[in-house]
Structures are given as structure tokens and as C-alpha cells.
Design goal:
Bound molecules: adenosine monophosphate
CATH class of the largest domain: Alpha Beta
Strand content: 25-35%
Radius of gyration: 26 Å
Number of helices: 14
Distance between the termini: 48 Å
Structural class: alpha+beta
CATH architecture of the largest domain: 2-Layer Sandwich
Largest sheet: 6 strands, mixed
Length: 562
Amino acid sequence: MIVGIDLGTTHSLIGVHGPDGPRLFPNAHGELLTPSVVSLDGDAVLVGAPARERLVSRPGQSVAHFKRWMGSDRETRLGDRVFRAEELSALVLRSLLADAEAALGQKVEEAVISVPAYFSDAQRKATRAAGELAGIRVERLINEPTAAALAYGLQQRDEEGRVLVLDLGGGTFDVSLLELFEGVVEVHASAGDNFLGGEDFLQVLEQAFLAEHGLRADRISPAERAQLLRRLERLKRELSQQGQCSLDITLAGQSRAWQLDEARYAQLCEPLLQRMRTPIERALRDARLQPDALDDIVLVGGAVRMPMISRLVTRMFGRLPLRHINPDQAVALGAAVAAGLKARDQSLQETVLTDVCPYTLGTQVSRRGADGGERTGYFHPIIQRNSVVPVSREDNFFPMHDHQTLLIIDIYQGESPTVDRNIKLGELRIPLPGKGPASEKGVTTRFTYDVNGLLQVEVTEHASGTRHELILEQNPGLLSPVQIQQRLAALGNLKIHPRDAQQNLAVVARLERLYAEYIDQRQTLQEWLAQFRSALDSQDLPRIARDRDELSQALDTLERSP
Ligand code: AMP
């Protein structure tokens, strides 16, 4: 069985392609969205809603937003263990797979996983490693905008078209231009802002609230601030549905009321809306397209529910965007469609998915200035950003000096003219025959970037015809196959709490979180916790279910009151 997975920064989803089209599976809490949060509980692991609750009550054991560290060596300490981003992602994947397997009644062996179009080689490999660590084969990685287009069925159109996909998630804004023709989808340009997302729109609300009440964020306790942010998040979502909303909250022992309407909120967010224009304009410029050359604009990511986003797009393009598929689910549904295409590939060979290389790839070169002086550190692009993959390009390089015996080919990715601001991926050291003029001793360097985001660098030295190849496994930020096996064994010692325990764990985690946040209600919360623990100890399932429901309702009421 092959599934489609959206492994998101804030949420993850899993689905398959069935006879009636793509469908998503709920987790143990009945939700399609599983928060991408992991929390360690002794030798056991919590994933999703209970882990998210523990971000407040057990911050040292819980972690979120680790997708941002994929492809880096950054490690997170949870309790007395350390984890890489691939391992944390693997734990989320394991939990999603358990949900899919519970619904399907069979084992899942393969998956198509979506990744942002701008993900680098190392980030893509880390995503594949996460799949391996979760015990599945990653059949392919699909770019998120391509997945969104598949969810809308845009690849099935007869005529060719150009589609702009705008994805405003919790922390990132991704812009991709897709070309569609005869069932083929190509990502033609991608741009984005890695530091712009729904969270920034929440920040605007927080700043405005604090300013209006003469408060400072660093003067309220972390627990009160967490509570304020949760209330503002709710307000933000309500504002997407209603013109006017209000908030009543007690901070530093004083009750604070606030009212806001959507028009005023949009005004406050104007600087963020301006920032959204930059990557949109860049993607169009890279593709050499005018705004009226687009056939459709697709909005995905939870934050596009804010009406101001549709208004911005309508103002920029003079037409309404497509937004009728739930924007939280579009990428996952598309990954499920891709999984379906893969499963039936004999019959659907005409549908080819192609992507682009997200960054410019090239080498470091030296240049001679007008004064004859030699300056090193220049970036020489070989594969330009947004080239359609697979792509293979070559270029010739010559040593700077006669009798030079070594040529170093440094491989970089990035968009800066000098290498110091780009990212070094690796280097090849090519011995040269010592004798003879520099002009006769060059090398041909070939870069090949494939659909899975793998970069191969081949250097052929002219004089001897010797071939050299770059071994990308030596890159920082990646695990070797041996390390993957070791980590797999280490992760094997961690058990994920069984699905049937998840709802109870979430209630306990929520009680603990509220205890940390609500000073005045601590005694009540502690009594409720003790009662619920004794229900759990009784192992009387109907009683546990009854207590859990009653408690959840009481906690809902508590959280809604000021
Ligand atoms: P994602 O990464 O796609 O899960 O995006 C989540 C982001 O979407 C968060 O910043 C949410 O606050 C935001 N979001 C979700 N629903 C709404 C809504 N109804 N109105 C405004 N923002 C929303």
C-alpha cells in the first residue's frame, strides 16, 4: 500500500487514493491534522495533540517546528536524549502511519512525501532519511505546489495552462509557478519568504493588543503570554469568519477587553501584505511572465483563510483565486493523488511530474581584475535556479597559472555573486599534470541534478582523461547509511504510545498545561487530574470514556472564560 503524506511545519496529514479519489485518515483524536510536535515521556514518545499540550507544561521534553532544521546537523535535547530533525520527523511519520494502518487494516510500505519546492538537496535527502527511519520506502518526493495542483485536478486539463500557487503556512510563504500541459506538471519558478507566515499575522495582533493596553510582552509571565497568544490565535481565526470580534482576558490580575474588526486588522497587517508581493513578483519575473498570463491562482496553507489574502491576490491579478479545497488539506490530498498515480503507473504513464532545481548550483572561480590582479571567491553558476529537472549542464575551467598541479572545484548553491554568501556543498581536488601552459590543462565539469534533488558532479581532466565524481554523502547535515542504521536501532528502543491511549494522554497533557497557565484554578485542576488518574487506574473503559468527555467539556468552558 502506498500513501501520500504532507509532512508540514505545524501539521502533518496522511491519505491514500481510493476509487472515489483521494481521502485522508483521521488520527486517534478523530482529527485529520496531526500537530508536528514530539514530546518525550520517559522511554515513550507522544506525537501530535498531547505533545503540543506539553510544549507549555514540559518544554524541556517537547519540540515543534523541526522541519526548519531538516538537512542540518542541529540536534534537540529532549529529556536525556538528543534527536536530529530527521528522527523527530520519523516519529511524526510513524504516528501517521499507525493512523493509516488502523484505518486501512493493512501495512503501509511506501509513501510519497511532499516537500517545499525550495528544499535543497540536503533537505530532500533528510526527508528521505526520515522515511527510512520510520520504516517505509519513500517512493518519491513531490513538491508541495505540484501536490496542490494535483489536488485541484489541474493536470487533467486538455489545454496548457499556467498556475501560480501561493502557500501561506504557519511560518513560511512559498510562491511557485507551475506550467501544465498534456497531463504534465512542471514547477517553473519558485520563490518565497522563509520568515513570513500565519505566526507573523498573530504577532501583529499581539503587538496591537499590548500597545492598546499599555503592556509589554516581557512584563507578563510566560504562562500568561502563552494564554494570551492562544486567545489571540482564536480571535485571528474568528476574524476570518466574522467582521468583528472581541476578546476578554485577565492579565496581571486585571481584566482586559478588546474589540477588533477585520478591516482594521487588514490595515495593521499592511506591511506583511506588502512583503508578500516581493516573492510573487520575483517568481513572475524569473518565469518572464506578466500577471495576466496566468490561468489560475491557487491558495493553500491555513493562513490563506484570512480574507485579506484573497483581496490582495484579487487586487494584484484582477481575478479571484481558487480556494475551494480546504487549504490545510490540499497538499496532502495532492500527495495522495501522486501516490495513486504511482501505484497505477502502468496505466497512467502519460502523467509525468517534473520539478525544478530550487537554487542556483555552481562553482567558485577566480577572476583577474583590470589591474591584472587575481581575485578569488566568485560564484560561477552552472545550473541556474528554476531550471526544469532532470537537468545536466557542463562548463570548462582552466587553472590560473602555468605549471599548476592542483585544481580545486568547490561546489556551491545560492544566488549571491560571491561564494561567501552562498552555501558550500562540497569540493573535488583534481591533480593536474605539472607541465605545460594553463590553457591546455583544463577540466570539464558536469552538474547533473535529478528529480529527487540529487546533485552529481563529474569532472573530467582533459590532459589525462581522468574522471572524478563528487560524493555528496560527505555533505554536512546528512546521515550516512551506516548512521541511519544506528539511529534506526536507537529509535527502536522508543515506543510510541498506542493509539487507544492517545485521547487519555491528551487530556492529561491538557490538564498539566492548564495547571501551568492558570494560577487561580490550580487546586481544581489538580483535583481533576487526580480523579482522572484514578479513572485510568481502574481500567474501566466506559468510566474512562465518560470521565474524559466530561472533563474535556469542563476544560473547554474553563478556557473560554476570561
Ligand atoms: P499550516 O502551516 O498550513 O498548518 O498553517 C497554519 C497557519 O494558518 C497558522 O498560522 C494558523 O494561525 C493559520 N490559520 C489556520 N486557520 C486560520 C483561519 N481560519 N484564519 C486565519 N489563519 C488561520
